[in-house]
Write a structure and sequence with these properties.
Elements (H helix, E strand, L loop, with lengths): L10 H18 L9 H9 L20 H11 L7 H9 L4 E2 L6 E3 L8 E2 L1 H17 L9 E6 L4 H7 L17 E10 L7 H20 L3 E6 L4 E6 L1
Parallel strand pairs: 2-4
Antiparallel strand pairs: 1-3, 4-5, 5-7, 6-7
Helix pairs in contact: 5-7
């Protein structure tokens, strides 16, 4: 009877496989983002479902300012409507608007239906929300997480195109005046492996509390946009 011979793979093959696996982990798992695809998402779905109860009250539903209550003051405090990007950039050149970049506690997403510019007061408000949010979560395992800004200043040209697919896009919006921005309450950048639903809920309500307190200090108006998945914030 012929003797079965076991062939061992060359050492370089094993080393290559191990290297590829480590690289995969580095790209998919050790990224500071929460991860919705790849290895990290697989681990989160399979063994990362543990929930830690955070002591956090619900504040999101307290954010219920209505547009008719503040649009006149918002438009008076901000810039005039711009019809196009070219007109908007004139406001930037004139110092009425500033380019907004990632800051402490927040990241600016790739904006498809707005431009990353705000008035001085609105940018200061965003920075203050970011600082307070970071401070709020500093004693949790979610420390150093960032929220994401999803919309800022719009032109009438952009809103005209947006209304073709989104009937909620207002033709009388604070986004025209450079002092409004939207913050997602469903997407955060978290520096931890396992981002659970409990984590996301805590981050959402912690952020809502920060915004609500600034609203109580008369520094902003804010609305909990359930369908859009964001907090709509307007500087005042």
């Amino acid at each position: 009877m012929a003797k079965r011979i076991r062939v061992k793979p060359p050492g370089w093959v094993l080393l290559s496989l191990i290297s590829v696996f480590i690289l995969f982990l580095a790209v998919s798992g050790f990224s500071p983002r929460e991860g919705t695809k790849g290895f990290r998402a697989f681990v989160n779905r399979t063994i990362g479902n543990d929930c830690i109860t955070y002591r956090q009250s619900v504040y999101s539903r307290k954010l219920k300012d209505m547009l008719p209550d503040y649009i006149a003051r918002s438009s008076a405090a901000g810039i005039d409507k711009c019809s196009s990007r070219r007109e908007l950039m004139k406001k930037v050149a004139g110092g009425e608007l500033s380019r907004v970049r990632n800051g402490r506690g927040y990241e600016i997403e790739d904006l498809e239906h707005s431009y990353p510019y705000l008035t001085e007061d609105a940018e200061a408000l965003l920075k203050e929300i970011g600082r307070q949010f970071r401070r709020k979560i500093s004693d949790t395992r979610l420390r150093r997480s960032n929220f994401r800004v999803t919309s800022m200043t719009r032109t009438t040209e952009i809103v005209g195109k947006l209304r073709r697919t989104n009937t909620n896009a207002s033709e009388n919006s604070p986004h025209f005046h450079g002092n409004a921005f939207d913050i997602s309450y469903t997407r955060f950048t978290a520096r931890k492996w396992f981002v659970t639903d409990c984590d996301r809920y805590y981050l959402k309500e912690a952020l809502a509390e920060v915004i609500w307190k600034l609203r109580e200090e008369k520094k902003c108006w804010a609305t909990y946009e359930i369908k859009q998945g964001c907090f709509h914030v307007v500087s005042r």
